[in-house]
Amino acid sequence: VLVQNVMACALLGDLAIWPQAGSNLFWQRFLGAGDTRVTLNPEEIEATEEHAVASLRTALSRCPEDPDLRELIDTLITGSPRFQRIWQQGTYTAWRSTHKTIDHPDFGLLVLDCDTLMLPDTDQSLIVYSAAAGTREASALDLMRVTGTERMTTR
Asked: What would the mean pLDDT of 112-127 be, rounded to a whole number?
């Protein structure tokens, strides 16, 4: 995670609390403590892990000389049997659009659209969460824009 705006902190929690080595979402997915507000059922876990590994393989094909990327991949292969198993499948892909369920401490379960926008001429992407107008999720996002990271309940 390079940067997280106030809305992202309000929705997902402050990812800056992760240690520097763990501030990568891929590292968190395979080696972290699982402290995330994104909730997944077993099928979603498997699908997102496969997609994550395939997207790292795609990144490596674009930037084979990137030492940080190589170090991350080596760390994941060494530290996570799940990552190593999926890596050996040899698939490639890029993140696109999906739905994610966020378990928010004030608003409960929020099912949101999640779009990954690839930034041209960079190795970076922008993740955008949104909700259809008029939904409970849209109202929750509107309220988060006002309250930011201030807690509304003790849930």
From this structure: 83
CB 102 within 8 A of CB 38: yes
Residue type, 67: P
Burial class of 111 by CB neighbour count within 10 A (0 to 12, 13 to 18, 19+): middle
Query: What's the pLDDT score for residue 1?
Result: 56
The residue type of 80 is S
78's torsion region: left (phi>0), alpha (psi -120 to 50) or beta?
A: alpha
46-75 residue pLDDT tens: 888 998 899 899 889 888 999 999 999 999
Place of tokens 């309220």: 143
| Interval 127-143 mean pLDDT | 95
